[in-house]
Every structure is written in C-alpha cells, then in structure tokens.
Amino acid sequence: MIYMSRKLSFSAAHVIRVPSWSEEENRRLFGFCSNPHGHGHDFTLEVMVSGKVNERSGIVVNIKDIDHVVKNLVNEELDGKFLNREHPFFREHVPTTENIVRYLWNSLEGNVPDSELHKIRLWESPFLYSEKEKGSMIKLTRKYHFSTVHRLHSEQLSAEENRKIFGKCNNPHGHGHNYYLDVTVAGELDPITGMVINLAELDQIVDKIVLQKFDHKHLNLDTEEFKNLNPTSENLAIVIWNLLSPHLPNLYKIGLWETEKNYFEYLG
Q1: Is the whole model's pTM more than 0.85, yes or no?
Q2: Which of 41, 70, 194, 211 could form a disulfide with 99 if both were Cys (CB 3.0 to 4.6 A apart)?
C-alpha cells in the first residue's frame, strides 16, 4: 500500500462561540476567538490517500484528480468565506478546526477516484492543527516552545564513553536548545462546542506542568526529574508524557523538536 498526500491552502473567517450561551460563557471558554465579528486564518489542508500502484501508469492516483475533487470542495465552500454566515453546516455547528476537519472528511470520503481517503490534517496556524482518519476519533495538536540547557551525561558510562557517545553535547557546562513541544490529544467532539478539549485549559495545564518547570532552566541542575536521569530528548519526551498524562486523560502523543533536524515522539 502506498500513501500519498497533497497540500493546498485557503483563507476563511469564523467565530468560535455557542449562540445560546451568554457573552461571559463564550468568552470564558473560547477567549478572543468568541469575538462576534469574527477572525480569520490562512488554513493549510493536507489530504492523504492510499492505494495500490497501477502497473501500467506507475501511480496510485492522478494528482490532477485529487486536486479536482479537493479544490472544487474547498474553493466553492470554504475559501474566502465567513463560515458561520455563509456555510449551511457551520451555521449549525461551531467551526472549530476539529469540526472543519470532520466536515472535510465526510465530504471527501469515497469521492477521491482510484484510492481511499487515509487522513486529513488541517493547520489553523503553525501552532495548531487537527487531523482525522477512519472512525469517530479526532486529534488536535498544539505546539509550545521552551528554552533549556542540558548536558548529555550518563553516570552509568565512563567519562571516555560519555565523550565518545555524546561528543560536544557532553560539555561539562552544558549547551542549550529552543525546544518545540507538540501535545496531541484525541477523542470525540463535544456536540455543543465542537472541541476535543478546551484549548484554554490545555494551555494552562501545559504551562503549569511543563513550561514553568523546564523553560529557561538547566535540566541537570534545576529539575528533580533529571537529577539522576540523562536529559536526552528521548528521556525528556517520556518525562513530559508522564507529567501530563494524569492531567490529560485523552493525551495521545508527545512530539518534541530538539532542532529542525531532530524530532522525537512518544505515545505512552
């Protein structure tokens, strides 16, 4: 089986609020996104299909066919629109990123020729995206940033072994990174809010449990978690999972970018 993805962009406005709620309730749950006059995004949509390679053509599906189906849907229904006011589905359903992904999946499933819809991912911004595959579960990923110092050094290895394995990262004074943390939660959408999780609560939990603990700290010297544990990014991803999972029952995955080239993920 071959998996192939195609990306496209569109611009749309929306307002995230429940009409039957008070202004105070909407502002408490949705924050600035509840502004009645709306706000907008340049969305990026990735559509991934799967299928077997055609022996004659050497391809799974003609990209032009994917573009025709996806672009027609996006251009006619979403691009340049105010979703709450101009789209029948989003007049009745809050146009969260999760709800938009669900709508796109239901609209595209079974309509891409010669292949099967495998996954849809929609970026609202570089720091927030939602995705859906088969089944009712929808994932939401929020990206965070923190800066730390660490020294890669294992007490179970000799000084020579540490220098050989970790090189300059074994510098006794440490070195630093701008880490980017992807926290992915998964579940069914709340039928009223259209959300997998309250983003404000997610932000508060990650800030309190992870960012305040690690941001602008020396992992080896300033944190209990790494007093006796080598602060590799592999270990850091596991530690962050263990810190967050008691507070996020629907936690699905931790993704950790140490650099643009080095990425680690942990699914518990």
Answers
A1: yes
A2: 194
